[in-house]
Amino acid sequence: MPPKPDITLNLRSTEERQAVLRTQVLMLALSVATALFFFDLLHIRGLIPGVLPFYTLLFGGLGLALYLNQRRKFAASSYVALGTLNVIVFSFSLSLDEVLMLFTPVAVGALVIIPFEYRAARWGFVILSYTLFCISLFGDFELFRVDIDETGESVVFFASGTTAIVCLLVVLQFWIRQTQATEANLQQQRRHLLQLTDDLQKSKERFSLVIKGSGAGIYEWNVKTNTLYLSNEWKQIMGYSSDDLQDFMIEDLTGLMHPDDRPELHRKIEEHFADRKPFQNESRRRHKNGTYRWIYDSGLSTTDENGNIDVVVGSIIDITERKSAELLMHDQNEWLKKTNRDLDQLVHSASHDLRSPLSSVLGLLTISEMAGSKEEIYAYHGMIRDRVRKLDEFVTDVLHYSRNSHREVVKSEVSLAQLAKETVDELKYADSKVAIDISPAVSNDVTIVTDYGRLKTVLGNLIGNSIKYSDPRKDEPFIKLETTLDSNACMIAVHDNGIGIGKEHHEKIFEMFYRATENSSGSGLGLFITKEIVEKLGGTISISSTPRVGTSVWVKLPLA
Predict the structure, then answer these.
(1) What is Dmax (Cα atoms) for the chain?
(2) What's the CATH number for 215-318?
(3) The domain 321-407: what is its CATH number?
């Protein structure tokens, strides 16, 4: 890449060339003035006393101009030199017409020796020279009289013409050199500009590749005009074409935000306007198809001369897949934590619930061996049977829990009437101290798409609990199974008039190994497993119960 042209150095070189030209012009003027002075001294008798003040002004002015030029007072040096020369030439031209031609190099010199930035002064001196020329040419007065013969006039004419020609040649040479330097500088600037254009194009292409590779969309918010520029990549991320969103405003962008994410975005923007630090934000924004996408937004701002933010520039990246993965990982971690807690509790309680019936069985066997009659042996065998049944119920519950935790949901079309009949038939011979009226009031045309085995376990647990905790003091104990449908869900309700559950137990009744009464004969896993199954099927479960009145359990499941 060629070096960048040094504009400051170029301007400085122009000043130096002007200073050299100024020195050359002043030295030429001094030389001519000295020659004329001696010429007048030798050939024009009696002229010196009248002309002496003008020569004093001429030598003094030109000397001062040279001094100022050496002190780098370029503008002041030019003004003194041009002022002196205009006065002297005007004074002599009133008496000698041959001197009039000297106004030309003085006027041309004004255009060259005065620094270029003083344009008004340059043209002012040109006008001054022309004005004095006209006054001298058409005026009819003299400041002093010069008696000079024909030879003297020829000498003055020759000196004036030579001086004018030499000055014009010096000025012309300066202009030629200046033009060549300017052309060379322009060529260098042109090459540099072409190189910059090429580098800019390559940089633009690299930037475009980076943007495409990163999948980022660029935006620019003009805070003062409240307008937005959106790149085509930005529009593509949000599902729009390049022709869409032409008059998009910041309020429209806020409208794409998910309502729950707007307060956080506004807070981040306020923080950025306060501390001016780059901001990052993750939020949901509405795609053109109506869905919400997770967007990572980052940006920074520029300020105006007053320190106020005028432009905010940023980029967005679609992180929906990353967020989905994070959410899945979070859910899996929560599931693992819950599973570990449940396993810890299961192992802890299982060690008691398994050992207790086995210990009872061993003890009863030992006692039955010492029994003296068959009646005692039969009684002990009945007790052993109860302990074994309790152990079997516990193992069954553990199996249900394990299957629900590890098996995938297998959905099929399920007839609720058929499922209810099968469940009731399996439980109607369950041990109960009283005869219970079990009536499944389910229409034959009620079907849902769900996991048949899991739903059967739910119904079995609920009806089994109603049988187990029936109230023997009531004359007509009952269990009713009802179903209702709406457009989105199926509600299954199990009602009984059993012993009921106190309100203080309602919130904990679905916890693992929780027993509402000390006299409970269950494992404490039934309702916990029921709730786990219902939630895995995408439903909800709730309970309402009053002691000595009865219990109602509602299970709400999706239709498909």
Answers:
(1) 180
(2) 3.30.450.20
(3) 1.10.287.130
Q: What pLDDT does 6 receive? A: 45
Q: Residues 311-321: what's their mean pLDDT?
A: 84
Looking at residues 501-521, what average pLDDT do you find? 73
Strands (E), 395-546: 411-415, 437-441, 447-451, 478-485, 489-496, 540-546
Please choose, from the candidates 468, 522, 526, the residue with its C-alpha nearest in 3D space to the C-alpha of residue 499.
468
pTM over the 0.70 mark: no
pLDDT at 190: 84
What's the confidence (pLDDT) of residue 2?
45
Residue-by-residue DSSP string for 455-474: HHHHHHHHHHHHHHT--TTS
Yes or no: say if 69 and 29 are a contact pair by the CB < 8 Å rule: no
Residue 547 is classified by DSSP as: T
Host H or E run for residue 221: strand 216-222
CATH H-level superfamily of 409-560: Histidine kinase-like ATPase, C-terminal domain (3.30.565.10)
Whether residue 511 contacts residue 435, with contact meaning beta carbons closer than 8 Å, is answered with no
Among 231, 207, 202, residue whose Cα is nearest residue 218? 231
Q: Is 132 left (phi over 0), alpha (psi -120 to 50) or beta?
A: alpha
The residue type found at 26 is L
Across the chain, mean pLDDT equals 77
